[in-house]
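Notes to self after the call with IL:
- keep both proteins in one doc
- input above output, always
- annotate only the second one for now

Protein 1:
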Amino acid sequence: MTADRLRTRITEQFSRRGQRADIWRLFALVLDTNAFLNLGYSEWYQPHVVGDSQRRLATAVGRRLAARLPTTEGVRLLDVGCGRGGPTVHLAERFGFAARGVDLVPYNVARARENARERDADAAFLVADATRLPFASGSLPACVGIDAFVYIPDREAVFAAIADALEPGGVLAFSDLLARADADETERRAVTRFAEAWDMPALGSRPEYEAALTDAGLDVIAVEDISPHSVGRFRKWTTLYDRLHDSPVGRLVDRLVARRGADPAAVTEQIRRAHEALPSLRHVCFVAEK
């Protein structure tokens, strides 16, 4: 798939257009997808039946960022790939950041602005390409990305753009979905099929991310695998869906999915591709400094 075609499909998916958007209609039954589009994070209970896990992931990234800064109150923060603004708004409210978010998808930015207005948060949003950030060189003390870079084909360009925008000593903290570096050929094929089903470019590994950050001029300070508290739990739900769909109630499942305005075949493909790939995926938090 060409980069332009991938960009179009990503825009359609997150603008509620096309078959790939259908899965988000179903997620909206149990998650606040009007604000949060990340994987979520929870240490102590089944996290993906309520939306709080998505907010907790933003908190987890925010804490890692705050630990490297002398203060967060009034500090300018950029959220790259901000989606519908839930994490950006939460970081402004929780830590006192003067938060700004950029996203490629106009629909996401419109939703993010509405979410900020509803909560009267110190957060503003722009439509922008993450590889060409509209900020002066050396102008930002802090930057985050919440499960966003996995959708960007040229992650090296993203890290280079962030490094340019950060001031000396500036901090980048982010979470992302990665491919397991030691996956065998069968596992790599499963990850490729998963990425294609979800309109993602080829997933990177932890060593590839670390190399890209270093090449961009950023020092990697910390790397933490949080998979047990996110993707490690997803497979329980994909297993349940798979079993139900293959059981005598499978047709009822399809009817319920269709009743939500979604295409059952498209949804089932995405869930099954995720189920196959989950053992070979990792959810990782990075902290880097300029």
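Protein 2 (the one to annotate):
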Amino acid sequence: MEYGIQMYSVRDLTKDNLDEALKQVAQLGYKFVEFAGFFGHSAQEVKDMLDKYGLKVSGTHTGWQEVAEHFEETVAYHKTIGNHNIIVPGCDLSDQKKLDDFVEMANKFQPMLEKEGISFGYHNHAHEFKPNVDGSMIHDQLVYRTNLNIEIDTYWAYVGMGHPIELMERLKDRLKVIHIKDGYANGEGMPLGQGTAPVAEVYKKAVELGIPMVVESETLKPSGMEEARICIEFLKAQEK
């Protein structure tokens, strides 16, 4: 099995030394990475780092504004680094007007990106599964009103709606990749195997559906790289 990591997990290192962070996650055994920013590096510099450490890109967390306002530059950058999956990491969709505007944007740019060989997706937190003050439901509308791919953050789905495995099964045709993450139902994140989220069941369902898994562990205790080590050891233990 091959596993990926969201580089936000090791942001205590990436902010100062992206090259060293990529080197260390590769040494831990991760085979692909999901970026959350490039810290001023050119696309060619990032590609050279990836090639040096034998890493692939499973996706990037990229703000929708970069797609909508800098389309050509964004596409060129992602093509250079070998990324075929742009994922919006979240945005303010707290009322129907904001949702309508986002849906309009997504439905404009998703087919444009598709023509460039790049999928367009959305990453959830917990609040998207609960009604806004005006009653609008974010996640439901993103699923039914767009063709966006859905990057299920299985931990936040656990916090927000309680049934990440059912969600994976229901949306399996829209999944390019998932976040596998652990923590408690109150929103306190933990490394894999140390919380109450159904991570073993998530793992089994992802294997069954053939969906790549990207680790995200956010607490930096004692460091992002130590959490990355704990998480990949947990994943490897599930293979037995």
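Annotation: The first strand starts at residue 4 and ends at 6. The chain has eleven helices and ten strands.
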